Amino acid sequence: MTAHTGPLDAAQEAMRKAQCVLLDFDGPICDIFAGLPAPRVAASLRSFLAEHDVEIPPEVEAIEDPLAVFRFSRQLGPDMSRITRDMLTRLEVEAVQTARPTPGAADLIRQSKRLGKAVAVVSNNSTMAVTAYLQRTHLGEEIDYVSARVEPDPNLMKPDPHLVRHALERLAVKPSASVLVGDSETDMEVCKATGVVAVGYANRPGKASRLEAAGADHVVTSMTELLVTNSTETR
C-alpha cells in the first residue's frame, strides 16, 4: 500500500467509500490511561509478577507500556500469562473511569452509523475495558461489534490479524471495503496483513512519519479530519 499524507479529502473519500469503519480504542477513541498513567500500570504489572517470584529482566523494568509487559508474560507459561492478562484487565477497567475522550471520535462514530456503515472497535485492550468505556460514554449502541483482547495469548494481539479478521467475519464485510483508524505501527501492519485500508492517526509530533513508514494509506492529525463533509446524510 502506498502512503498518502496529502489532501485531507483523500482520507475523507476513503471514509466515504468504506462500508465498515474499524477503530482502535486507545488513541482514536480515548486516552485510556489519562487518569491512571500507563507507566504506573506497567509498574503494577511488574510488581504483580515479582510477587509471583518472576525475575524481571532489566529491559522489562524499563518498559512503560502495559501491553508490552503482558507480551513478556507469554514466555512465563500459559498460567502466568493468563493471570497477568486478568490483572491487566482489572487495571484497564479502572483506567477507563478516568479515560479522556478523543475529540471528534464520538462524532465520527455517530456519523458513520448515520451513513449506514458498520462500526467496530478492534483493540489490544480488554473487551471488558472497551465495553465499560462505551457504556460510560453512551456510545455502546453506536458500535456494532467489539473485537478486543480476550485470549490469554499475547501473540493474538495486533499486529497479528486475529482481532481484525474476527471483526470482519462477524460483520460480514470484505477487507477492501473497510478502513481501520489506528495510532500505532501495529495497526498499520495489521492492515497490510489483512487488506484493510489503513488510516493513521498521528496524535503526537513525529508519529506521522512512523505511521507512513509502517504502511498507512492516509495520515491525519485529528479525528475530526475524518468527518465526511458534503455528505448526503440526513441531519
From TrEMBL:
Q: Which InterPro entries match?
A: HAD-like_hydrolase_sf, HAD-like_sf, HAD-SF_hydro_IA, HAD_sf
Q: What's in the keyword line of the UniProt record?
A: Hydrolase
| SUPFAM superfamilies (UniProt xref) | HAD-like
Q: Please give the GO cellular component terms listed in this UniProt entry.
A: cytosol
Gene Ontology terms describing biological process: DNA repair
Task: Name any one GO molecular function.
Answer: phosphoglycolate phosphatase activity
- One of its Pfam families is Hydrolase
Q: What is this protein called?
A: HAD family hydrolase
The organism of origin for this protein: Nonomuraea turkmeniaca
List the top taxonomic levels of the source.
Bacteria, Bacillati, Actinomycetota, Actinomycetes, Streptosporangiales
